[in-house]
Give the backbone structure.
Amino acid sequence: MEIRPIDVHDDAQFHDFYVIERDSLLHQRPDAPVWSEREAQVMFRRKELSEDWRAFGAYDGDRMVGAAEYILPLLDNTDKVYLEVHVAPQHRRLGIGSAVLSHLVDLAKVDGRSVLLGESNIPLDQRETHPYVRFAEKNGFATASVELNRELKLPVSDEQLTAWEQEAAPYHVDYQIETFVDDLPEHLLESYCYLSNQLALDAPTGDIDFEPEGMTPEVFRVRQAKAKEQGRTVFETLAVDRSGQAVAQSTLATSSDDPLRVSQWGTLVHRDHRGHRLGLAVKAANLRALQQAFPDRQKVRTSNSEHNDHMIAINVKMGFEPVELLVEFQRKLWGSPRSAGC
Ligand SMILES: CC(C)(COP(=O)(O)OP(=O)(O)OC[C@H]1O[C@@H](n2cnc3c(N)ncnc32)[C@H](O)[C@@H]1OP(=O)(O)O)[C@@H](O)C(=O)NCCC(=O)NCCS
C-alpha cells in the first residue's frame, strides 16, 4: 500500500478521495450531515492565509482505499495539526487506518507540530467502547474532550421565537441586535473578528489547550467568499453595544446542496458582556431570519462540550436534543507529561 498526497485540483483523484470520506462518515449513521463534493473541493482548492488543507490517499495498486485530511493552522495554535483518517467501510480492520495515521504523525514531526488532534462521531452510549475510540487509543491518542451533537427540529413557531426574544429583551436594553446575511459591515469587522477569535479559548475544550484564533478582516473576507462559492448562505446575528462594538454573535449556515439541514456554527458572548441574555437573544433572532429565508429546512445541528453548561442551557431551552457524541482525540508528541507517543 502506498500513501501519497492527492492532487486536489484533479477532479478524478478528488472524487475518489471524497467518496471514501463520505461513505466513511455515513457508515452506520446514514442521516448524518456530510459536505457535498463541491463544498469539500472549495475547502481544499481555495488557499487561505489561516489554514493549509492537505489531502492524502492510501492506494492498493491504482485503487484508493483510505483517505486523510491534514490541516495546519497557520496564524495561531501553530503547535497543532488537525487530522482526519477515513477507511472505506469494506476495507477496515486491515491496518490501513493505522498506516495512514502513522504517515501523518511522521509528517507532523517534520512540520514541527507537537499536538495532534482528531475527532469521531459515535453513538451516545459508546464513548469508551466504540471501534473509533479503540483505534485512536491503539495509535497513541487519548480522548481529550467530549462534545454532544444536538439537533433542533424546524420550524420553530413564530410565537415561540417571540417568547424567547421577549424573555431576553429586558436584560439587553443597552444592546442592538442586528442580523446580516453573507456579509458584515466594515465598521463591525474588527470587533467581530476579536470576538470570534475568543471562541476557541472561552468554550470548554477538555484537555486541549487552545490559544485565541488569529482571524483578521482579510481572512474573514476570504472565508466569506469561500462560503459563497460552496453554495452556502451564512446568517450572522450580532449584539452591538453602545460604543458600536460587536460583543455577542451567533452564526447559522445553510448549504444549497442540502435542502433539509442547517448548521449552527459559533455562538459567543464577550466575557465583559455576559449575564444580559445575549446568547438567547442572538440565537433566537438568527433563527427567525433563517426561517424567513429558508422556510423548508427541517433541522439545525449544533455541537457543544458536555461541560459547556451555559450554552447547553440555552440549547436545551430551545429544544435541541442529543443525537450522538463528537469525541475529540489528542496525542502529544513532545513537551508534555501526558505525552502518549515518542
Ligand atoms: C477509525 C478508522 C480510520 C480505522 O481504520 P482501520 O483501517 O479499520 O484501522 P486499523 O485496521 O488500522 O485498526 C487498528 C486498531 O484499531 C482498533 N480497531 C479498529 N477497528 C476496530 C473494530 N471494529 N473493533 C475493535 N477494534 C478496532 C484495533 O485495536 C485495531 O488493531 P487490531 O486490528 O490489531 O486489533 C476507520 O474505522 C474509519 O474510517 N472511521 C471513520 C473516521 C474516523 O472516525 N477516524 C478516526 C478519527 S480521525
